Amino acid sequence: MQGSELRTRVQRILAVVKKKYVKKMNEKSINNEIKVVKDSCGCGCACSGAEESTDEEFSKLKKLENSNEKNKDSSKLYIDIYVPMDACACEWSQFMNLMFSAITPYIKYIKHETKSLNSDEARQMNLFTKCVIVDGKKKYTTSAALKRDLPRLLEEKGLM
Predict the structure, then answer these.
(1) Are 150 and 102 in contact (CB under 8 A)?
(2) Residue 157: which of 82, 79, 104 has the closest Cα?
(3) How far is CA 149 from CA 82, 159, 160, in A?
């Protein structure tokens, strides 16, 4: 699976999860006073045109993710991409595209993971804006800086 196909798949999965969340919240609303509005940004992004996914598909993805966690390779550069996942994908998809364009040439040396900017882990690291953390140490907020430093970081780790 290529980078653009993977990004599209991730965006669709996130849109499906958001759609299911909206549906569940609407079902639980008291006397229908509280409504979660689907595609509230009005941009026509992936969150409005999501296709339904089955629970079986979701569980397969979860198993795949768990198996990847168990097989951590110490000979890879670890990159954590922090974005506000609870916001509409149009708020952070361009950032993801730019970061993936920077890491794609070196993808065989890199293990990446997308994480929520609103998580406890992000708060503990004092992260308040979209960014990339390399090996838990170095923070990048622009793809140009990441693209510039990536070869040096890979050489320092002995991967290139």
Answers:
(1) yes
(2) 79
(3) 18, 14, 13
Q: Tell me: the pLDDT tens digits for 13-38?
A: 877 777 777 666 666 554 444 444 44
pLDDT at 106 over 70: yes
Residue extents of the structural domains in the chain:
1-71, 72-160
Q: Domain 72-160's class?
A: alpha beta
What is d(CA 95, CA 74) in angstroms, rounded to the nearest whole number?
27
Distance (Å, whole) CA 93 – CA 124: 24
Residue 41 CA, chain-centre distance (Å), reads: 19
Q: Is the pTM of this model over 0.70?
A: no
Find all residues with CB under 8 Å of 72, minimum gap 6, and list them.
Answer: 111
